[in-house]
Amino acid sequence: xxxxxxxxxxxxxxxxxxxxxxxxxxxxxxxxxxxxxxxxxxxxxxxxxxxxxxxxxxxxxxxxxxxxx
Length: 69
Hints:
Helices cover about 70% and strands about 0% of the residues. It is mostly helical.
């Protein structure tokens, strides 16, 4: 079963949220050739930001910024 279907079935995200997260990830992973580990960190960051940010353009913009530590 694809991960998207599992997420919907588990009630984690609905289809619209998954589509949004997928579009944002696809836009950001095209920035450069990223390792699977880097892509995993990017996915985690997008999901974490999605808890507060629902606008796609803002989510892309914030996900591009370096982490402030």
